[in-house]
Design brief:
Length: 245
């Protein structure tokens, strides 16, 4: 990727949505639940948006892994907090609850589908919330709400269910200066990239990088769909099988 895109975040729609729900959580009235769930298909920009909002709101951010057990999750959260883990699972849980309550900072758990598949993990995260009364944002794939429905005591504590939105032409216009800098990309080509993406921010950014690379080779300072022609673009589909020779 070109160096112009490093450490720059485009203010696309999903970023605004997550920022609003985080503000709603942090500033909620007494008595309202403090959990929110942000969900959507892979590639729709959820992690990028939540990391950006975590930085803005000083939230603790932890991206879960499939191999984690309950103790691993607690240790990773404490590591993110800068607190040395000490003792058993109940002791680690108490450390987290105390730190969240004292700091009043939110906690974001990304890839939360891994927790939703394990009853013990769900109850542990509920314990974190109940013990701290902090704000928790849980991020996962599009079926995450359905996975959480069977956990009634957890499901009922969710204040907001936030679906990620598909990438738009307006988003693509904001992404273009970052991933295809110093090249004017025509709206017709951007619209084509959005149509090919099937909602995925990632596919649009990959194709903008492809356009940028082609522009460097061809010496373009602008490109529209006619100039792009029939050059290949990334769709996310598996390559077609070659015919027998």
């Amino acid at each position: 990727m070109n160096e112009h895109g490093v450490n720059r975040i485009a203010p696309i729609a999903n970023l605004d949505l997550v920022a609003v729900v985080m503000e709603k959580l942090v500033n909620r009235q007494d008595g309202l639940p403090g959990l929110a769930v942000y969900y959507g298909p892979s590639g729709w920009g959820k992690t990028t948006a939540t990391v950006a909002v975590a930085n803005r709101s000083r939230a603790y951010y932890v991206q879960m892994r499939s191999a984690w057990n309950r103790k691993t999750l607690l240790e990773k959260v404490l590591f993110e907090m800068g607190v040395k883990p000490a003792g058993t699972i109940p002791a680690l849980l108490d450390q987290i609850c105390e730190q969240l309550a004292a700091s009043r900072r939110p906690l974001i758990l990304d890839e939360f589908d891994y927790a939703a598949a394990k009853d013990g993990m769900i109850e542990l995260v509920r314990d974190i919330y109940e013990g701290s009364q902090s704000s928790l944002l849980l991020v996962g794939e599009e079926l995450l709400p359905n996975k959480l429905k069977r956990h009634e005591r957890f499901h009922g504590r969710v204040l907001s269910w936030l679906p990620a939105v598909a990438v738009t032409l307006d988003d693509a216009k904001k992404l273009a200066p970052i991933y295809c800098p110093e090249v004017v990309v025509g709206d017709d080509l951007l619209s084509h990239l959005v149509a090919l993406s099937h909602g995925s921010v990632r596919r649009v950014t990959v194709n903008l990088v492809n356009v940028y690379d082609a522009a460097l080779i061809e010496g373009w300072d602008s490109v529209d769909r006619a100039k792009w022609g029939d050059r290949p673009l990334y769709t996310g589909d598996a390559p077609k099988r070659r015919g027998a020779i």
